[in-house]
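Q: Structure tokens for this one, please.
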Amino acid sequence: MKAKELVQRYGISTVGLVLVALGVGLSIKSNLGIAPPSCPPTILNLKWTAVSVGTFTWMMHLLFILIQIGILRKRFKIKYLMQIPAAFVFGYMCDGAIWLFNSIDAPATNYAIQILLSLAAVVVTALGIKLEVLGRSWMLAGDMTTAILSDESKKPFGTVKVLFDIALVLVTALLAWVFFGLLTGNGTTVVIREGTLILAIFTGLCMRLTDPLLDKLLAPITSTFAPHNA
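A: Here is the predicted structure, written as tokens:
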């Protein structure tokens, strides 16, 4: 792989990583339910407050990598291990995004604003995930796992993304019930609400609209990339 292509790949994927982290921050800021990929780390943080959301995030991503190894076995490539540093970076970027948005203002309380923030998180997250996929380098383990499941099942990425996010929400609801006797959080902090469902359902659907736009916009760059399996 040429140096120029390497820089382009990582540049595109890094922008995607930043956008996904901002999507997490926006979903938390909405106070209407957290983005599905951040639901399990958040509910675990509410149970064990000494461990940050970001730390639980990278732990979860390491679990996703193990799942990938189980699916791909000998087809799992060494370069996929770049998901490990991406997991650490993204985990602490989430902590930074949470701090940033909390320092700007208190969580939203106006319902219309909450809905708008959730929808903004949908769009930002959809764009970020697609950029990660296009770069095929600095990719989050959750999104790589979704891509692998999409490839293995021959189903559209957006469709698999919806199912994957719903599964994460169900796992979170189960943990919340075990830990706190509730399905939505710990009684003080709301982890699952309609905003979570908006993000779980509409992120994948949004990608059906935004993916072709990004494909067209970045085609002059991505069309020069060597095949991912090369």
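A few notes: Helices lie at 3-30, 39-47, 53-72, 83-104, 111-135, 141-153, 157-180, 194-222. Residues 3-221 form one domain.
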